[in-house]
Every structure is written in C-alpha cells, then in structure tokens.
C-alpha cells in the first residue's frame, strides 16, 4: 500500500469511527426510549412492517453496490475518467427504481400487511398508516443512494460522518418527542422518521451540487453507462435478493409463526448486531473504494494487501467487541433496556455469532464486484443464501422454536463464506493457502486462546457488575498479548514496529 493511500485510509477511518461511536450511543439510547414509549407489541409491529417495506428494496441494494463500484472504478482510472456521466446515469436509474419499489409496495406490501402478518386487534388502521410512511421513507433513501455513493467514492468521509450523525440526532429527536405524546405514538413516530429522512436527502444533494465539481461537468447521462450499470446490477440483484430475503424474510417468518413480540426480540438483537458491525464497517467503508481503485488501475498486489488487512482487522474488531457481550448478554441487555422481550438474550447471542462468522465477507464481496464479472458468483452465493428461508421455515415448523431459524442462518452463512473465498481466488488471483494461514487459522487459534479464561470465570463469579468487569478485563488483557504473539504475522509486526519507531523519532 502506498504512503499516500495509507494516510488517506487512516484519516478516513478516524472520521468514520468518530461517526460510529456517536451513532452507536445515540441509536442505543433512542432504542431504549422507543421501546419504553411504544411498548413491546407496537415496537415489534413497527419493525415487522418495516421488514415488509424493506423486502422490496432488494432492487435498491443491487443498485447501491453497482453505483459504488462504478463511481470508485471510474475515479480509479488513470485516463478517460467520466465521473459526471456515471453519476447522472446512476441518478436516473435510481429514480426508476424508487418508482418500482413504490408501486410494488402498494400492490403487494399492503396485501401482506392486511392479510399475511399477525396484526393485533384494533391496530390495522395504525399499521396501514405506518406502512405508507415507511414506504415513502424507503423511496427517499433510494433516491439518496447516488449522492451517498458519490461522497464515499471521493472519500469525503468527514462529510459523510457529519451528515450521518445529524441523521442519528434527528432520529433521537423523534424518540424524545414520543415522551410528550399520549396517543397514536406509533403513527407519529413513522411520520417523523419520514420527514427527517427527507431533510437528510436534501442535505446530501446540496453538498454534492455545491462541493463536488465533477458532477457539474456533464448535463447528459450516457445510455452506455445506464446499460453497463443495469447489466452489472442485474446479476448483483440475485445476491441482494438473497440478503433481503433472509434478513427481512426471517422477520416476516417469525411474525407469521410466533407473533410480533418475537419480532421485538429480533429487532433488539439486530440493533446490538448493527452497533457491533458498525465498528468494522467504518473501517471497511474507508478501505472499500481503494480495493476497487487498485483493481481498476491494475495494482493487484496492492489489492491483495488491502484484502488481507481489511479481513484481518474486520474480524479482530468484531470479535473484540462481541465476546464480552456474548458471555454477559442478559446483564448487558437488562442494563441497556430495563425490560426484555422473550428470546431477546438468545437472539442477541446468535446474532453476534453470525456477525463473527461474516466478519471477513465484505472484502471478498467488494473484490468480486470490482472485477465486474459477477454472474456466476452471484448466482451461486445468492442461491445458497436463498436457501435460508425455506430451510428455516421447515426447521421452525418441526421444532416450534424461534431460535432454530438463526441456527440455520449461521450454518448457511458459513457455507456461503467458503464459496465466496473460492470464487474470489479465481477472480483476482489471491492465494487460498495464504488467506487460510494468515486469516482463518490465526483467527481460530486467537479466539480459542482468549476465550478460555473469561468463560471459566463466569462459572465461579455471580452475575452482575463485578463479573462483567472482571471477565472483560481478563479478556482484553489476554487479547492484548495474544494479538501480538498469535494473531499478527512477522510482516505485520514489522509494520507496527516501524510506525512506533517513526512516531518516537518524530517527537525527538
């Protein structure tokens, strides 16, 4: 990796972590307020209705990845770069997608809300109002995607961070307003989120219009770019359909089989999972454009280095944050929320385990997308992930246990990750042996070594603050030494020594 790329990566990562810390604290506090004010039933209902709306956003997910890839690829070109034309093409395509999502949402989504989901008696009117505003909120977010992707592609992470923090603060404001309302809290909450999402969309658009001059140079969009974009996205569609199906599909499946209180438990588990993943995704967001740019400029060795760095740090960050919560899940959730829906503890644990399994997936996904040749990749990986829903339904019917759905997801996720690695090996000529030794083997050994002592401590110390503090301190103390002696290889240790040496010499 070049010195300039390293400095830019470090700077962007700092901004994204500041963003992540603020957003995590704000979001977790907002969730506590929303759960308390809406109650478990309405909280679960809101999340399952949101799941129905997001079910139609698989088109958006496919185009988001395509937009980010094409903008980053275009910026990585040494000659003949035409960012303005690509952006215009992306914007027009997303407007069409927003219209499609709205139409399908009104035709199919309304039927699902009124005839498929288990809606509590007397809540159908509120559920329909919430659905309409949730659908409009998703439509607004779809139109915002090209602007978000443009800011990330230009690596303006400070701006992206500031706007994201503003978005989180507005959602906190919506939660706080609920305290002063006495009726129709669920409806007002959905309306407020729509209004605030509209405000954020205008902020993104205004920044891009006034501060990114490249998009002003082209008033016409290229039909060639539109075709390339839709062709790429059409295969990406399979993968995103799979992701939406097993995330939002599981939500709907749980509602149909077990009711909205179980949806509340899953929503809380996903918020914990999202907060943990956010620390890793902040680093990944900083490095993703560079992975694509190094491929487009033909620097495969540098690309491989970025893949290894991103994979290794992503796993380390997620594992270090997840493990203390994994062994003290109930204590942490009660401390955070006060009241817990049934299955919240179990759902949270398995969600964190899935996050650890998926920790190294993003660099492989970005690497595959960078090549543009994703037809076989998406059909295979997406096809495997789509199996989660039918298998989960069958297992849940047999066991009558909501948690069984997540065990299925975990097993299929491991299989999908193996398939991703095999594809990427051929697509970007990465060494499978090197990947296995540097990342997989070291991650497994590291995880086992640092987990033994804290886990044993939970068997001898009573649940509470004392146990949480002691197990966390023991875990991080052992991790500190294990990272150096087990997780890092010789080259990585040399890099760290050189960085420390440069810092010391700079102070003299």
Question: Would you kindly provide a written description of the structure presented here, covering whatever features stand out?
Answer:
This protein is 86% helix and 0% strand. It is mainly α and 508 residues long. 44% of the residues are buried. The longest helix has 53 residues, at 3-55. The protein has 18 helices and no strands. The chain has helices at residues 3-55, 58-76, 83-116, 124-153, 157-178, 185-211, 223-258, 260-296, 300-327, 329-337, 344-357, 361-371, 375-386, 388-399, 404-428, 432-457, 465-487, 490-507. The protein is globular and about 60 Å long. The protein has one domain.
Strand content: under 5%
* Largest sheet: number of strands, sense, barrel closure: none
Which class do the helix and strand fractions yield?
mainly alpha
The parts where pLDDT drops under 50 for at least 5 residues are none
Number of domains: 1
Helix content: over 70%
User: Number of helix segments?
Assistant: 18
- Principal-axes geometry comes out as globular
H/E series, N to C?
A: HHHHHHHHHHHHHHHHHH
Distance between the termini: 27 Å
Total strand segments: 0
Tell me the Rg in angstroms.
Answer: 23 Å
Residue-averaged pLDDT: 84
Summarize this, please?
Keywords: Cell membrane, Membrane, Transmembrane, Transmembrane helix. The protein is mostly helical and 508 residues long. It has helices at 3-55, 58-76, 83-116, 124-153, 157-178, 185-211, 223-258, 260-296, 300-327, 329-337, 344-357, 361-371, 375-386, 388-399, 404-428, 432-457, 465-487, 490-507.
């Amino acid at each position: 990796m070049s010195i300039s790329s390293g400095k830019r990566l470090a700077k962007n990562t700092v901004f994204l972590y500041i963003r992540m810390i603020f957003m995590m604290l704000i979001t977790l506090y907002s969730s506590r307020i929303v759960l308390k004010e809406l109650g478990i039933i309405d909280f679960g209902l809101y999340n399952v209705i949101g799941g129905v709306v997001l079910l139609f956003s698989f088109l958006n997910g496919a185009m988001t990845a395509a937009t980010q890839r094409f903008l980053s690829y275009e910026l990585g070109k040494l000659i003949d770069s035409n960012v303005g034309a690509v952006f215009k093409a992306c914007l027009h395509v997303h407007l069409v997608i927003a219209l499609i999502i709205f139409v399908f949402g009104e035709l199919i989504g309304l039927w699902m809300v009124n005839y498929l989901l288990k809606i509590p008696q007397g809540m159908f009117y509120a559920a329909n109002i919430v659905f309409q505003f949730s659908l409009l909120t998703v439509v607004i977010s779809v139109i915002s995607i090209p602007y978000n992707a443009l800011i990330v592609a230009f690596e303006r992470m400070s701006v992206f961070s500031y706007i994201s923090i503003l978005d989180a603060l507005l959602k906190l404001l919506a939660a706080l307003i609920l305290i002063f309302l006495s009726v129709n809290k669920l409806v007002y909450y959905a309306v407020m989120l729509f209004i605030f999402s509209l405000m954020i969309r205008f902020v993104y658009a205004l920044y891009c219009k006034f501060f990114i001059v490249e998009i002003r140079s082209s008033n016409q969009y290229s039909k060639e770019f539109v075709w390339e974009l839709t062709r790429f996205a059409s295969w990406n569609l399979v993968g995103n359909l799979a992701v939406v199906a097993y995330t939002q599909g599981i939500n709907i499946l749980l509602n149909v089989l077990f009711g909205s209180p179980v949806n509340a438990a899953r929503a809380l588990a996903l918020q914990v999972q999202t907060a943990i993943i956010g620390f890793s995704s902040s680093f990944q967001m900083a490095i993703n454009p560079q992975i694509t740019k190094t491929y487009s400029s033909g620097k495969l060795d540098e690309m491989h280095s970025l893949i290894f760095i991103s994979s290794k740090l992503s796993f380390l960050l997620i594992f270090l944050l997840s493990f203390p919560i994994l062994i003290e899940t109930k204590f942490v959730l009660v401390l955070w929320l006060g009241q817990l829906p049934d299955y919240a503890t179990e759902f949270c644990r398995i969600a964190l385990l899935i996050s650890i399994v998926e920790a190294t997936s993003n660099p492989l996904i970005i690497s595959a997308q960078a090549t543009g040749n994703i037809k076989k990749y998406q059909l295979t990986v997406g096809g495997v992930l789509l199996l989660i829903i039918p298998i989960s339904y069958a297992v849940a019917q047999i066991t009558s246990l909501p948690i069984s759905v997540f065990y299925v997801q975990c097993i299929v996720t491991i299989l999908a990750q193996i398939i991703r690695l095999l594809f990427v090996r051929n697509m970007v000529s990465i060494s499978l042996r090197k990947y296995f030794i540097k990342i997989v083997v070291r991650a497994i050994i590291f995880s086992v070594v640092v987990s033994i002592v804290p886990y044993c401590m939970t068997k001898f110390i009573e649940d509470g603050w004392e146990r949480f503090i002691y197990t966390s301190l023991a875990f991080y103390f052992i991790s500190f030494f294990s990272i150096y002696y087990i997780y890092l290889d010789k080259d990585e240790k040399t890099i760290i020594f050189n960085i420390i040496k440069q810092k010391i010499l700079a102070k003299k």
